[in-house]
Amino acid sequence: MAPLSAWQRDLLRLGQQIPGEWLLRWRSWQRRLGPARILVASFAGLILTGAFLLTLPAASTGKPVGFIDALFTATSATCVTGLTVVDTGTAFTRFGQIVILALIQLGGLGLMTFSTLVLYVLGGGRLSLSSRDLLQETFSQGPMQNLKALLKTVFLATLTIELVGAMLLTLRFMRDLPSTTAVYHGIFHSISAFCNAGFALYGDNLEKYRGDVLVNFTITSLIILGGLGFVVIFEINRRLQQNIRTLSLHARLVLRTTAVLIGAGAVAILLLELNNAMADLSWGTRLLTSYFQSVTARTAGFNTLALGALSDATLFILIILMFIGASPGSCGGGIKTTTAAVLLALIRSRFRNEENVHLLYRRIPNDVLAKAMSVVFFASVLIALFTFLLLLSEAGGMAHQQSRGLFLELLFETTSAFGTVGLSTGITPKLTPFGRLLITMVMFIGRLGPLTVAIAVGPQARTRFTYAQENVLVG
């Protein structure tokens, strides 16, 4: 081989230096950016990619969907909300529906896997301590010491539960649909239910299956499992396999709070709609419908009753359930069941003048109490702010007598978006483009969490000193 000339040696040496310099610059940029911004940017990138795919002519059955509507749909799917401005079953082709389904899967438990892998790759094959803390805070998970075990368990549990749900739904859908279509519908609704997304391929959602026991109990079982949180599912499975007698406080609190909310919500819906929306239904269908709506109200967004026909009192009950939401580490949003339980325990202890707060014979640490109050405060402020902005965009300058009922509908819509629920009184397609962008922002913040988004967009201040402490009169 002929010896290299001087310019060839210089070019080879430059080629060896550039990758190293790029890697050093990338690592430096990554440290300045921080894991919170990387996490938010990754989800935003996923949403924008989905929105772009949904604007393609191949994704729509008729005229291509506009970018704002595609962005709204992609955000709703990725944030597993279920609010829609166009009908999923008729406006999108099979390709468009598969794009939505993929976003739902990544937006459910798959979102945690996706986020972990992004930070893992950007970290050069390892997770930094700050990345671990961020993922633990964002997805309300326990200590993430074993990344491979975590990803494996998430994948296997998701695949198994969704597969069983798809098989049961397919068996029912085959009575009404061709075999291939029934299989597709079974897979779609199983993933949508387990990920607590609430997307359906039918114009009336699941109203035509209002009295169907198999569909109702399959969908609600998937929703409950997806809303319990992965840690709870893991603990229950370990208890069954290893014959462990007790569950952790977190698992017991999640299970009890979930049962109470489902039961109380079902009773409230039944009593309030007994002579209204469910007046013409049989008692069996009334009980089934009340149970179904109570389950979906906190997380999923499926409905077997037309929400526009419900009374204001029932809508208010649904707002409370949507505000509470699912459990930590699950596919759902809201302030979380454990947060509500801790807050109620705090109020109870104050009424009793107790020094400590107790739940299920355990003392709750002060930092957990502070976090619970912070979560409720941020959620309340966020919902109030965006409801106000929606009132300006949708009813600005309109007299109260002309806009009666609109406030409740917009509050319902905002709470549904924040809790990533997806229930709507029917106002979603009627929102202005600016109103749709507002709801898009609420869904994004509600899924990632206000604290994570605040860390990502706010300056990172360092406190170098502390001030003197002094009491303030409150209450």
How does this structure look, described?
It is a single chain. Helix 2 packs across helix 6 and helix 16 packs antiparallel against helix 18 (433-448). Strands 1-2 form a two-stranded antiparallel ribbon. The longest helix has 30 residues, at 366-395. The chain has 475 residues and is mainly α. 65% of the residues lie in helices and 1% in strands.
Give a summary of the structure in a few sentences:
By secondary structure, this protein is mostly helical.
**Beta strands, count:** 2
Tally of distinct domains: 1
Q: In what order do the strands lie side by side in the largest sheet?
A: 1-2
The largest sheet, given as strand count, sense and whether it forms a barrel, is:
2 strands, antiparallel
Range of helix content: 55-70%
Cα distance spanning the termini: 87 Å
Number of helices: 19
What's the mean pLDDT score? Answer: 83
Question: How would the global form be characterised?
Answer: globular
Global Rg: 24 Å
Order of helices and strands: HHHHHHHHHHHHHHHEEHHHH
Enumerate the spans where pLDDT stays under 50 for 5 or more consecutive residues: none
Structure class: mainly alpha
